[in-house]
Every structure is written in C-alpha cells, then in structure tokens.
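PT: before anyone asks, these are the final sequences, not the draft ones from last week. 228 residues across everything. Please model them as a single complex and drop the result in this thread when it's through.
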Amino acid sequence: MIMSVELLPESTLSDVIGLMVRLVEFAGALVIFLGAAWAFVQFAKAGLKGRGRVAGFNRIRLSLGRFLVLGLEFQLAGDVLRTAVAPSFTEIGQLAAIAAIRTALNYFLGREIAQERAELARGEAPEGRRPAEGMPT
Amino acid sequence: MIPWAQGAALLVTAAGLVAAPAAYRMVGDARRALAVLLDFLTAAGLVRLSGDLSWNGVLTAAAVIALRHLITFGLTPSRSGSAPGARPWVR
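LR: through. Structure below.
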C-alpha cells in the first residue's frame, strides 16, 4: 500500500495564487482610481480659478501619468502571478494579450512622463513644440 | 465583469468628462483638454480590465488605448509647426 502525503495540494496553491492575484489587481485598480480622483479634484479646482495655469496643468497630468504607471505595475505583477497557474491555452493567450497591452502602455506612459518632466525642467515649452523623440502625449 | 470594477470605470469616465472642460478652461487649448479626457478614458479602461479577464475586455481596452494614441498622434503638430497630418514620414 502506497501512502502519499501532499504538503501543498495543487488546488490549495491555485486558491492562494488566485487570492493574491485578486489582491494585487485590486491594489492596482485602486491606485489608478485614486490617481484619477486626485487629478479630477485638481483639475476642477484649477478650472474654477481660471486660465493661465499651464505649468500647473502639466504637473497634474504628470502626476496622473505616474499614478497610471504605478497601477499598471501592480497589474503586471498580477499577470506574473497568474502565470504560476494557467491551466488552459485560452487563459495563457488572454494572459499574453493583457500582459502585452499593459507592457506597451507602461512603456508609452513612461516615455510621456519623461518628456513632460523634461518640459517642466526646462520651463514651459512654446505652443506646439514637441520633444525631439516626437512621441504623442 | 466584477461590479466594483464596472462602477469604478464609470466614475473615472464621468470624472474625465468633467475634468476635460476644466482643463480647457485652465489652459484654453482644446488639444490638451482632449488629452486629459483620453488620459481618464485610459484609466477607466485599465480599471475595467482589472475586473474582466476575457477577450472582450482585452480587445475593448486595447481599442481604447490604440484610439487614444491614434488621436493624440494625429493632433500633435509636427516639429516644423505645419498642420496636423502633414508630419514628414521620412526623417
């Protein structure tokens, strides 16, 4: 008679990873939501004050972009966790698509943030002027 | 889709619809105000995607993000200051 003792059953591991994925994804969504709420309040306050606040506008957009990137990092962490348990090719395909979208968006947002930061560092650029890389914001 | 993600995404979209006119009032530039709206729509898409791991959710988020980049690329003036769409393809 063969007796096997499973220290960590696969179903338990699946449940634990599923819970962790949900927590990490929720944290990412929360960061994005809080960033959007903060940016909304800032835009509303500045909008009520009136025109001529271009530097303030850039700072708010820069902060919103940072929140988006941070939330995306959390969501990518969730994707990495999901790769631990991906039982079907459909799930693996969905995971690959989502990870690709998030990675591409993270890359573009990172570039935009670097450009906005450079603009802020050298003062407000003239209207219509774009950085050398020419990426859209 | 998870209800909280749907609700949060709707709230972010509504916030964007209010923030864009505020941004326009702030800087007096429609292009920048549109960029703000698209930032909020991107945020809403990401929040929605965190609660919906399906092909439909993925494609919707990808479409929003691609549209955002397409619109901002089309509206960004070229370095020579010419009209949108007149961007030189050969550098």
